[in-house]
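Weekly modeling sync, notes
Attendees: S.R. (lead), two postdocs, one rotation student

Agenda item 3: backlog of single-chain predictions. S.R. asked that every request posted to the team notebook include the full sequence so nobody has to chase files. The rotation student volunteered to paste the first one in as an example of the format we agreed on. Action items at the bottom.

Example entry:
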Amino acid sequence: MTDTATSFLRNASDKVFDIAHRQKVNFNIARYDEAVKKGKDQFSDLAAARKIAKNRKWKAIENLGYYLQNFEARFRENGGQVIWAQDSQEAADAIRKIVKRKKAERIVKSKSMVSEEIHLNSCLAKDGYSVYETDLGEYIVQLAGEDPYHIVTPAMHKSKEDVAELFHDKLGTEQNATPTELAGKTRQIMRNQFRHADVGITGANFVVSDIGGIALTENEGNARLSCSTPSVHIALTGIEKVLPSMDDLATYWPLLATFGTGQEVTNYNSIVTGPVKEGEPDGPEEMIVVLLDNGRTNLLAQPDQRESLYCIRCGACLNACPIYKNVGGHAYETTYSGPIGSVITPHLKGMKEYQHLSQASSLCGNCSEVCPVNINLHKLLLYNRRDSVQQRARPRSEQFGFWLWKKGMLSRSLMNAGNSKMKNLVFQTLFSNSWGKNRAMLNFPEKSFNQMWREGKKN
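Predicted structure, as returned to the notebook:
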């Protein structure tokens, strides 16, 4: 078993019996579920909207090279710059060079899972730069020294009491401060950061090919400030975020809002097409889009799993997954957790090290049921399991165990061999620390069904 698999099992075991953790997560997800029900009412034909969304992403991914090159051409015409990054190191190095050239003293960043993927904050910290998270959830986990728990709700695992205690320790607020007071304190701090920021970093919910722009979706307005107040705006995004046309946003923005937070539409939806132009009141003097591969072309090369690139990062599959709701987001120790993370991470970071994630599923299919773009996630998990076997990524002990099981299941004489005491002894010796740790041990009967059947026919 790999170190990553061992760590996942240890983390999962710790969290699955943590009652307080489960109560917090289930409380937050229950509120999400209620909101989503209301958000869906805005669609006269939700099934048709999901089908259209999937078909448009199919078109974008099947013609990915064309739409990305078209985006680059249009964006450059708008005065922007495009950097292509093969992996996380190239992306981080490119951003570090920009920050160094700008002699930046303060960097603000809105919520971006791709920046978490390349560990951008720690990379910039090595050069002495401080990056200030401006999304409230991201700011909470940054203060706590943690990674985001959820791809949409970074601090889902914390109660309001947890946050009040954290702010009291780190910022000196009242120990029993209300959520309104905590948000006000954050706003006060962030306003000062925005006023003095030299570089602003954002992600991109969508890369719009035909107009050469990026689309940002948020509820707090911090992304707008991150890309408009500093003199340099860097947008870091995965290459799969591309959409063929601006017209597609009419479908994707409501779907993302409904399945992401239960809203009809998020509070702020922005399209940014480049640096400030003459006559415009605000905006960056310089805008750079960093297009990141980092293993995405590995997924593109897989005809069965390519569909996972349709994901719009709404987080619905995490909220629906019984495994995620019990073991929590941090147990995965990956940027993308839950069903979608279990599908894509083995291709982004290596099948041998991360194939265990595709086993962390009940295959109930609820993730596929709730996906706004109809990704067959449970089926893709099975494809990953198939590939891990074909690539011999599974542990040798497991391979040997299944070979032995196959031999026994195909041989009636081997299945009937030995008595129940011997079978129980063998099973208890081999599986007491795995099967028996959290389950009652099996108790083999004195006679197999096959033997009882034969005796019944004789009688």
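Discussion: group reviewed the output briefly. The radius of gyration is 25 Å.
Action items: rotation student to repeat for the remaining queue; S.R. to check formatting next week.
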